[in-house]
Amino acid sequence: MNGVVVQNMSFKAGQTLTVKGVPSIDSTNFAINVGNSSEDLALHINPRFDAHGDQQAVVCNSFQGGNWCQEHREGGFPFKQGEDFKIQITFNSEEFRIILPDGSEIHFPNRTGGKKYKYMHFEGEARIYSIEIK
């Protein structure tokens, strides 16, 4: 598995996870994953500049029991290659609220219903330089 993995850093319902980074100048996509393990992802956020048949789309999904669930697309695409971004994620037992760099929001169902997650994985063509939970 490529990318950066953060384990045993508790992210609880009501807290805010803030991720700051910069996509490479030729980035096709990157992903932020939140869950309990690489096999149990409650949230997969995948900004796609040009990847997997999508152009300028933010795709959200979850991964359970070895299978990807149904993809969720919502909103615009406020990411630019080579430019800094900030994403803020909060959740409760029913949904994740993702605030994108331009202030727009994505609401994605918390399909696992979890109240605490301990696994984060950052992958793809972006350099993540700050991860904060408050």
From TrEMBL:
Q: What is this protein's name?
A: Galectin
* InterPro entries found in the cross-reference section: ConA-like_dom_sf, Galectin-like, Galectin_CRD
Mind telling me which GO cellular component terms the entry cites?
Answer: extracellular space
What are the entry keywords? Lectin
Gene Ontology molecular function: any one: carbohydrate binding
Give the Gene3D superfamilies listed for this entry: 2.60.120.200
In terms of PROSITE patterns, this protein maps to: GALECTIN (PS51304)
Taxonomic lineage from the root = Eukaryota, Metazoa, Chordata, Craniata, Vertebrata
Pfam families registered for this protein in UniProt: Gal-bind_lectin (PF00337)
The residue ranges of the Galectin domain are 3-134
